C-alpha cells in the first residue's frame, strides 16, 4: 500500500496520529523515521493536535519512595507511560517539583539543589538543565539558605515569543527583605 500513496499524503495522515503511535511507526521505514523526527513535521503535528482539541494529557509525579511509583507518569484516559529518567538510573531519592506550566507538551522538573530537567513525557525524552545562579547560591549556602529566609522560589517554563523554537526556564523569586 505504501507504493500507492505519495509520501505527502502519508505525512498528512501521520500528522493526525498521537505521539505514542508515531513512536511505533518510526520503525516502518527510514523515510518514515526521518519524517517523524524532522522538526517541521513535529511542529505540524503539534499544531494539528492543538487545533483538534484532543483531551490534554496529565502529568503526575509521585513522591513515593517505592521505585515503581516514583517516576513521572503520563496519563490519558486508557494508558500511562513510565518515563525513563536520570534518577531511575542513579537510584537517587531526590524529589523533583513540576513547574506549573507546560509548553508544547514539555514540562520542567526542578529541585533547589540539583539540575533541573526538561521532559517530554510523550516521547520519553529529557534534557538536563545547568544550575542557575540562584541554585548555585543555594548549593553554596546549603540548608542555611532556608534558615536565613532569603525567599521563596518557583520555576516557570515557556516558549520565547521572539524565537518561536526556543524554550526557556525562568526562576521567579519572592524575597523576604521587607518582612516585619
Automatic annotation (TrEMBL):
Residue stretches in coiled coil: none
Show the CDD domains listed in the entry: F-box_AtFBW1-like
Native source organism of the sequence: Brassica oleracea
Give the SMART domains listed for this entry: FBOX (SM00256)
Pfam families in alphabetical order? F-box
Q: Could you tell me which residue ranges the F-box domain spans? A: 1-44
Supply the name of the protein.
Answer: F-box domain-containing protein
Q: Where is the signal peptide?
A: none
Amino acid at each position: 500500500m505504501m507504493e500507492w500513496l505519495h509520501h505527502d499524503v502519508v505525512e498528512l495522515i501521520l500528522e493526525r496520529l498521537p505521539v505514542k503511535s508515531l513512536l511505533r511507526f518510526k520503525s516502518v521505514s527510514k523515510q518514515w523515521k526521518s519524517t517523524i523526527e524532522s522538526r517541521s513535521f513535529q511542529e505540524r503535528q503539534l499544531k494539528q493536535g492543538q487545533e483538534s482539541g484532543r483531551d490534554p494529557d496529565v502529568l503526575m509525579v509521585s513522591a513515593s519512595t517505592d521505585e515503581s511509583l516514583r517516576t513521572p507518569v503520563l496519563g490519558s484516559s486508557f494508558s500511562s507511560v513510565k518515563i525513563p529518567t536520570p534518577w531511575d538510573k542513579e537510584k537517587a531519592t531526590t524529589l523533583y517539583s513540576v513547574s506549573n506550566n507546560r509548553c508544547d507538551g514539555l514540562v520542567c522538573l526542578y529541585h533547589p539543589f540539583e539540575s533541573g530537567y526538561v521532559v517530554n513525557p510523550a516521547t520519553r525524552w529529557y534534557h538536563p538543565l545547568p544550575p542557575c545562579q540562584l541554585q548555585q547560591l543555594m548549593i553554596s549556602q546549603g540548608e542555611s539558605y532556608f534558615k536565613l529566609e532569603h525567599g521563596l522560589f518557583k520555576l516557570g517554563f515557556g516558549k520565547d515569543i521572539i524565537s518561536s523554537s526556543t524554550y526557556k526556564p525562568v526562576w521567579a523569586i519572592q524575597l523576604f527583605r521587607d518582612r516585619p
